[in-house]
């Protein structure tokens, strides 16, 4: 069989890599496409996942998003028509969905973010089948025009795909790695992941940045703690590096996030995937995401994550987690139990694809 994967984000690189590798090992022919988007392209190189780059990310503006999406659909249509796949697989790619629908290709989709309203409206109705984590109710999808019989749930959060394949305890923490990320081993390390500010579910709703919360943390803890910040975009890197010059280390290059999390004592996330990943690795984790969503609700209710609602909250929780070794041990034990009980989503998705 012939499969086309449209892989657009670093999370999708991590999620789809073992599925792509398994399909290739089983003798199937694959084409993996992406767009010119810094984090996805560079992480794919690190993970040895070959991507054909078609088009680029549209940025934050509605007009730019529309134009880049239209251009990408036009370019993809020609390439996919020539490849003639039996099945398209996307993590709710608007361009992938439109091209698959337009060319009459079966589309198997994934999504864990019904809160990303614009993307869901453009993709969910066009899917032949949807896979999602079990913490998302069926009713969350109905408003996008898909029925229950076309939805399959797996009992896992998406990072389980790569965490079940990563022996985190065996990752070597060499002096080279420590020096590369400007980490003083005599201090505790706090890792901060910034929000996906250019995503439509944030940009379109003009949600305020959580930067004022990070300002308070840097002001209070920069002298006693290593503060490492992982941005998403080139302009975000420049802005944050200038804002916290000499007080925090801003990662300049795309790296393996799991390795970076392993170096931290506390993780603070303004997004979704790395917050879930850090918590499932047992790291004391705080969410400052601009909105709440189903996956985060599960993480909060299970005790894997705590939420900070104000700068004072964030500073207080971070300080507490840094010094509380018993809490860190408890989180590690709890996370292992929860991750071990989760399905491997690949075991649900791979047979479905090969039978489709």
Keywords, please?
globular, 356 residues, single chain, 17 helices, 46% helix, Rossmann fold, alpha/beta
Helix content: 40-55%
Major pleated sheet: 7 strands, parallel
Radius of gyration: 20 Å
Mean pLDDT: 92
CATH fold-type name of the largest domain: Rossmann fold
Low-confidence parts: none
- The oligomerization state is single chain
Q: What is the CA–CA distance across the termini? A: 9 Å
- Strands, total number: 13
- Total helical elements: 17
Number of domains: 2
Please indicate the percent range of residues in DSSP E strands (runs of 2 or more): 15-25%
Based on Cα principal axes, name the global outline.
globular
CATH class of the largest domain: Alpha Beta
Q: H/E series, N to C?
A: EHEHEHEHEHEHEHHEHHEHEHEHEHEHHH
The named CATH superfamily of the largest domain: Glycogen Phosphorylase B
Structural class based on helices, strands and sheet pairing? alpha/beta
**CATH A-level architecture of the largest domain:** 3-Layer(aba) Sandwich
Trace the largest sheet across and list its strands.
Answer: 3-2-1-4-5-6-7
Can you give a write-up of this model?
The protein is an alpha/beta fold and 356 residues long. It folds into two domains: 2-154, 3-Layer(aba) Sandwich (Rossmann fold), CATH 3.40.50.2000; 169-341, Glycogen Phosphorylase B (Rossmann fold), CATH 3.40.50. The chain is 46% helix and 17% strand. It is built from 17 helices and 13 strands. The chain has helices at residues 10-25, 38-46, 62-83, 94-102, 117-123, 139-142, 160-163, 175-180, 200-203, 211-221, 234-243, 257-262, 273-280, 294-301, 311-323, 325-341, 345-355, and strands spanning 2-6, 29-36, 52-56, 87-90, 106-110, 129-133, 151-154, 188-193, 225-230, 249-250, 266-269, 285-287, 306-307. The strands form two sheets. A seven-stranded parallel sheet has the order 3-2-1-4-5-6-7, sandwiched between helices. The longest helix is centred in the N-terminal third of the chain and has 22 residues, at 62-83.
């Amino acid at each position: 069989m012939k499969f086309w994967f449209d892989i657009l984000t670093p999370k999708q690189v991590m999620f789809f890599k073992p599925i792509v590798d398994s399909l290739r090992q089983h003798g199937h022919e694959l084409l993996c496409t992406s767009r010119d988007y810094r984090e996805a392209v560079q992480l794919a190189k690190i993970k040895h996942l070959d991507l054909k780059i078609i088009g680029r990310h549209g940025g934050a503006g509605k007009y730019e998003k529309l134009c880049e999406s239209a251009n990408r659909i036009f370019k993809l249509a020609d390439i996919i028509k020539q490849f003639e796949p039996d099945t398209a697989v996307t993590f709710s790619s608007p361009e992938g969905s439109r091209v698959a629908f337009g060319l009459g290709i079966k589309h198997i989709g994934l999504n864990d973010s019904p809160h990303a309203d614009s993307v869901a409206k453009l993709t969910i109705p066009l899917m032949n089948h949807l896979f999602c984590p079990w913490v998302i109710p069926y009713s969350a999808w109905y408003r996008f025009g898909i029925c229950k019989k076309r939805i399959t749930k797996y009992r896992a959060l998406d990072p389980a795909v790569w965490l079940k394949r990563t022996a985190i305890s065996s990752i070597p923490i060499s002096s080279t790695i420590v020096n590369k990320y400007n980490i003083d081993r005599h201090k505790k390390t706090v890792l901060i992941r910034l929000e996906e500010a250019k995503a439509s579910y944030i940009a379109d709703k003009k949600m305020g940045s959580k930067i004022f919360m990070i300002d308070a943390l840097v002001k209070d803890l920069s002298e006693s703690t290593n503060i490492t910040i992982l941005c998403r975009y080139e302009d975000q890197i420049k802005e944050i590096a200038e804002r916290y010059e000499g007080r925090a280390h801003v990662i300049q290059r795309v790296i393996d996030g799991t390795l970076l999390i392993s170096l931290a004592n506390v993780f603070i996330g303004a997004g979704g995937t790395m917050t879930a990943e850090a918590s499932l690795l047992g790291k004391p984790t705080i969410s400052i995401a601009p909105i709440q969503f189903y996956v985060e609700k599960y993480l909060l209710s299970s005790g894997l994550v705590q939420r900070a609602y104000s700068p004072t909250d964030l500073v207080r929780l971070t300080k507490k987690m840094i010094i509380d070794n018993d809490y860190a041990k408890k989180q590690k034990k709890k996370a292992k139990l929860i991750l071990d009980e989760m399905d491997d989503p690949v075991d649900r998705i791979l047979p479905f694809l090969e039978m489709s």
